[in-house]
């Protein structure tokens, strides 16, 4: 079985996903996790392991990516109001995304299962935890057309890899061929 996770390409798709997140058992946490993820491009494995202190005191905190072991600056300037509201009253040592288990954080697989249920509700088979990272990349590129910076954010080695990763290549080819007709 091939599994090709895609970004949410429109505001409507994002709103539809948020609609279902607001109906989970933990809507505040689940909605914040989604908003946080689509606005910074982090992998889910890095998001779920954040503590309140990791994002509370700086607009640009530095974390170490789990997959690469590299230091990464999080650019959270755009989320300060949302972060402040979400962490209000939380202690520095608390997990940003706590699980039901005492003292634990959400697991990537738990988020994946939740997203699969939402995908089913939306009639989609192409949504997973990585959709957040891809959604960030897709919209960042659409807004800025700055593939070099996006490559840096994602730590990719080539434009081709980054464009394929966020699904831009297929979209661009389709758009350029939409009105392309010869001999008709």
Write the layout of secondary structure elements.
Layout: H1 11-21, H2 27-38, H3 44-47, H4 52-56, E1 62-64, E2 71-73, H5 80-87, H6 108-121, H7 130-144, H8 147-154, H9 159-166, H10 168-177
Antiparallel strand pairs: 1-2
Quick structural summary:
The protein has 184 residues and is mainly alpha-helical. It is 52% helix and 3% strand.
Q: How do the strands of the widest beta sheet line up side by side?
A: 1-2
CATH architecture: Orthogonal Bundle
Question: Do you know the CATH topology?
Answer: hpI Integrase, Chain A
Sketch the major β-sheet: 2 strands, antiparallel
What Rg is obtained from the alpha carbons, in whole angstroms?
A: 18 Å
Give the oligomer, counting copies of the same chain as homo and different chains as hetero.
single chain
Number of strands: 2
Structural account:
The chain is mainly α. It has a single domain, classed as Intergrase catalytic core (hpI Integrase, Chain A, Orthogonal Bundle). Helices cover 52% and strands 3% of the residues. It is built from 10 helices and 2 strands; from the N terminus they run ααααββαααααα. It has a two-stranded antiparallel ribbon. α7 packs across α9. The radius of gyration is 18 Å and the shape is globular. The model has no long low-confidence stretch (mean pLDDT 92).
Essential attributes:
DNA recombination; globular; hpI Integrase, Chain A; 184 residues; Tyrosine_recombinase_XerCD; Integrase; mainly alpha
């Amino acid at each position: 079985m091939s599994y090709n996770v895609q970004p949410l390409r429109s505001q409507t798709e994002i709103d539809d996903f948020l609609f279902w997140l607001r109906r989970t058992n933990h809507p505040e946490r689940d909605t914040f996790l989604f908003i946080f993820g689509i606005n910074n491009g982090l992998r889910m494995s890095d998001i779920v392991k954040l503590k309140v202190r990791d994002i509370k005191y700086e607009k640009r905190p530095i974390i170490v990516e789990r997959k690469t072991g590299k230091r990464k600056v999080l650019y959270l300037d755009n989320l300060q109001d949302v972060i402040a509201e979400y962490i209000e009253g939380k202690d520095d040592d608390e997990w940003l995304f706590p699980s039901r288990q005492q003292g634990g954080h959400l697991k990537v697989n738990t988020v994946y299962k939740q997203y699969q249920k939402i995908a089913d509700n939306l009639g989609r088979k192409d949504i997973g935890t990585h959709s957040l990272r891809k959604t960030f990349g897709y919209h960042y590129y659409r807004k800025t057309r700055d593939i070099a910076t996006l490559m840096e954010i994602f730590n990719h080695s080539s434009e081709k890899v980054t464009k394929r990763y966020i699904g831009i290549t297929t979209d661009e080819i389709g758009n350029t061929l939409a009105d392309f007709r010869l001999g008709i």
